Amino acid sequence: MNEAKILIEKITEGIQEKKGKNIVVADLTGIGDTICKYFVICQGNSPSQVTAIVESVREYVRKEVQEKPVGIDGLRNAAWVAMDYCDILVHVFLPEVRNFYDLEHLWADAKLTQIPDLD
Known about the structure:
The chain has helices spanning 3-17, 47-65, 95-101, 103-106, and strands at 21-27, 38-43, 71-73, 80-85, 88-93, 111-115. Helix 1 packs across helix 2. It is built from four helices and six strands. It is of the alpha+beta class and 119 residues long. The protein is globular and about 35 Å long. The protein has a six-stranded mixed sheet.
């Protein structure tokens, strides 16, 4: 399994650990001129859950694959937090913010993979 796939798996586990919902992996590798190779998109029901998901992802990835995000943006109001792992951008949204920006539709050319919720 390549590094990106392992990283996506660990990010997903971190999201699921805090009951993040509606996880979608967008594969952007077939699209030219993108800022990264993959998006991992999910949502939490409250700013505190969004923050907990971000912390969980950071911990899981650090423990399992010794990677740290290059940057994390959006924690102040925790409506949309982006975590930058170079080739992979993790987006953790509140549901209404996710619906508003609709990244999946914006990147409709990407190959989208839905990860089932754990409950």
